[in-house]
Amino acid sequence: MKTLLALQHLAFEDLGVLEPLFADYGYRVEYLDATTDDLTQVDPAAADLLVVLGGPVGAMDDHQYPFLCDELALIRRRLALGKPLLGICLGAQLIARALGSSVYAMPEKEIGFATLTLTRQGRRSPLAALEGLPVLHWHGDQFDIPPGGTRLAHTRTAINQAFAIGRQVLGLQFHLEADVGLMERWLVGHCAELASAGIDPCSLRRQAHKAVHALPAAGRQVIGDWLDQLEPATVRHTPLPRTTTAV
């Protein structure tokens, strides 16, 4: 069985609706808490897929949160190996920073559900399934596209929403993994940020209710299409029983 290592920063920001998909693709999932586990002891080549999840700190905040130094070092070692790497929100920002790109505060936070505008390359990428569909945004920073990366999407608020580096690396500023049926976890976990930004949680709750049917399926389509790129077409996945999921 293949292995997936997920670096987590908050308990409720996990693989969410994508975890059963990864099980279907034959991955055994293991989580590490990036804030407390010793990432210097992690072999960057050991996992078949490394996923760096989101979190409320900034990718440039290592002077305040020193664990980010070890996380960046692990990401850099993984990138040097050319092995599959997926970054979501903070994870995408850390990948961009590891590759030398700037990560910086936006004039305003982007929190809520909004559609993406796909670039020409984005429409030919796994992100094509998101055309016209509102996705969940929850960030106050954005990244520049790393050297050698392909810009895939943008919004009115953030010019860079997704990038790919070849077939092996995908960075997403938005949250396809979030189970919008469990949105209350996000509303409570980030209540101070919502209050500070003047965002009404009732509005987000209503938006989540509208997205609960279409968004999870589209997210699984995107990541499934990306996983299909990682292996030759002759050995693409055969879905396994959902009971194979392990955390």
Describe the model.
- It is a single chain.
- The protein contains eight helices and ten strands.
- With 247 residues, the protein is of the alpha/beta class.
- The protein has an eight-stranded mixed beta sheet with strand order 2-1-3-4-10-9-8-6. The protein has a two-stranded antiparallel sheet with strand order 5-7.
- Helix 2 packs across helix 3 (90-98).
- The radius of gyration is 17 Å and the shape is globular.
List keywords for this structure.
single chain, about 250 residues, globular, eight-stranded mixed β-sheet, alpha/beta, two-stranded antiparallel sheet
Task: Describe the structure in brief.
By secondary structure, the chain is α/β, with parallel strands linked by helices.
Give Rg in angstroms. Answer: 17 Å
Q: Describe the sheet with the most strands.
A: 8 strands, mixed
Overall pLDDT score? 93
Q: Give the fraction of residues assigned to helices.
A: 25-40%
Strand content: 15-25%
**What's the end-to-end separation, in Å?**
14 Å
Number of helices: 8
Structural class determined from secondary elements = alpha/beta
Following the backbone from N to C, one meets helices and strands in this order, namely EHEEHEHEEHEEEEHHHH
Give start-end ranges of low-pLDDT stretches.
233-247
